[in-house]
Amino acid sequence: MIETVAIIGSGLAGAAVATGLRSLGFDGGILLFGDEAHHAYDRPCLSKAALIEGHAEPMPLHPDGWLERNRITLIDEAPVTAFDAASRTLTIGTGQQFTADGIVFATGLRPRTLGVPGEELAGVQYLRTWADQLAMRDALHPGMRLAIVGGGLVGCEIATTARQLGAEVTIYEAADELVARVLGKVVGERCRRNLRSMGVDVRLNTTISAIEGDTAVRGVHSRDGMVDAVDRVLVSIGGVPADDLAAAAGIECHRGIIVDAQGRTSHENVFAVGDVANWPLRDGTRRSRRAMILPIRARRCSIRWGAPGATRQARPSMLRILTASMAARCSLRMGGPSPPTKPICVTAFSCPTRTGWQAFRP
Ligand SMILES: Cc1cc2nc3c(=O)[nH]c(=O)nc-3n(C[C@H](O)[C@H](O)[C@H](O)COP(=O)(O)OP(=O)(O)OC[C@H]3O[C@@H](n4cnc5c(N)ncnc54)[C@H](O)[C@@H]3O)c2cc1C
Predict the structure, then answer these.
(1) Ligand 1 midpoint to CA 42 (Å)
(2) What's the pLDDT tens digit per position in 154-207?
(3) Within the chain, which residues score under 50 in pLDDT?
(4) Which sign does the torsion angle of CA 259, 32, 107, 78 carry?
(5) Which end of the chain has the lower number of beta carbons within 10 A, N or C?
(6) Using an 8 Å Cβ cutoff, are 331 and 318 in contact?
(7) How many whole angstroms from 213 Cα to the centroid of ligand 1?
(8) Which residue in 279, 342, 344 sits closest to 308, CA to CA?
(9) Residues enclosing ligand 1, CB less than 6 A?
(10) DSSP code of 71?
(11) Which residue lies with its CA nearest to atom 12 of ligand 1?
(12) 149 C-alpha to center of ligand 1: Å?
């Protein structure tokens, strides 16, 4: 009998599990652990509207009173630092311990690092949290020189915004096209053309081999032998599942926490959802996310995602990006902690601006 559920990670997936549990009639205690100063906010917005429009606060996924209405105890700014799977006991940074009958890992991804000399210098940054976004926003001003390592979706969005704000932008992309891994070469080529017409220096088939500076970044060395003077480096080369805690507790992990179609891990009453989970796909293979783009018409596209629980029983859900309406709607379907028959469906909204999506216009 599960009387208390502890959810590690208060992002989209963790918050969705909490709401989903209540809507499925779960009446026990819900503990929601987050390591950021804000909980359950719209993360996709960080590279879009929040950056260019200068939001004062992150865009919440739920209206005021959500925690109280759903009787959720939030323990924020408190990273869970240890987990004992046998007793299902969590320890947070202060040393305080909590025990629950059901545990849900919703720890998401952490940014992939470059692993080159100079990466620790001030001015080298990632974009994952609200705090990262504030640091990026502070740094962007006319004439500043920004190196973006990684020409994926986020890198291209930031390039667009930074250019709009007057920055000198260079993208270093290891592949032979931008965004090609997710959106294909046709969209990538279009994106590259648009960015170049905006004045972004797009360099393909190259990456950064070293970052130089004394205490702060001053320049970057690229693999094609160039040395460029820059003021800031944004590393945007994807993320790795934040599964260390689970792995250390003996839970089966491989490129994320291994789960079945209902989100169950190798340990009883321990579950994983969202970006940290590695779930089964319809074709019998495993991977956490697959995307393919179906261009529909000008300024509109839709992406079909293989989502958690994407087996024959639970169909993949749709993520739609409607640039015309200035709204992106993202639906993830995931297996929830209980009961296993009914998946929890998460819907989140983000608001890319017209400028934020300029790189992707047809
Ligand atoms: C800049 C950016 C732009 C994006 N744009 C899009 C987009 O346009 N469309 C789209 O579909 N997706 C987009 N994404 C991806 C999307 O945000 C993620 O897929 C989604 O947030 C995943 O939700 P999650 O809850 O699994 O993980 P997260 O939202 O990452 O939440 C995990 C939370 O757990 C916390 N945590 C981790 N470890 C611990 C611990 N030990 N203790 C306590 N808390 C912990 C993390 O700090 C974080 O707050 C974007 C992501 C970024 C960073």
Answers:
(1) 9
(2) 999 999 989 989 999 999 999 999 998 888 888 889 889 999 999 999 999 999
(3) 288-362
(4) negative
(5) N
(6) yes
(7) 31
(8) 279
(9) 8-14, 33-36, 43-44, 46-47, 79-80, 106-109, 127-128, 154, 242, 245, 274-275, 319, 328, 330
(10) T
(11) 44
(12) 20
Residue closest via CA to ligand 1's atom 37 equals 107
Question: Which strands make up the sheet holding 201-203, listed edge to edge?
Answer: 124-125, 232-235, 145-149, 168-172, 201-203
Which domains does the chain carry?
A: 4-110+240-278 (3.50.50.60), 113-237 (3.50.50.60), 291-362 (no CATH)
Distance from Cα 172 to the centre of ligand 1, integer Å: 24
Longest dimension (CA), the chain: 62
CB 171 within 8 A of CB 156: yes
Count of CB atoms situated within 10 Å of the CB of 240:
15
Whose C-alpha lies nearest to ligand 1, atom 9?
44
Residue whose Cα lies nearest atom 51 of ligand 1: it is: 44
Q: Whose CA is nearest to atom 1 of ligand 1?
A: 47
CB neighbour list of residue 84: distance below 8 Å, 6 or more residues apart: 249
Among 238, 46, 37, CA closest to 134: 46
Distance of CA 312 to the CA centre of its chain: 26
pLDDT tens digits for 250-296? Answer: 999 998 999 988 889 999 999 998 889 988 877 777 754 433 333 22
Question: Closest by alpha carbon to 8, among 242, 267, 307?
Answer: 242
**pLDDT above 90 coverage of the chain, percent:** 62
Ligand 1 centroid to Cα of residue 182, in Å, is: 18
Query: What is the 225 CA–ligand 1 centroid distance (Å)?
Result: 35
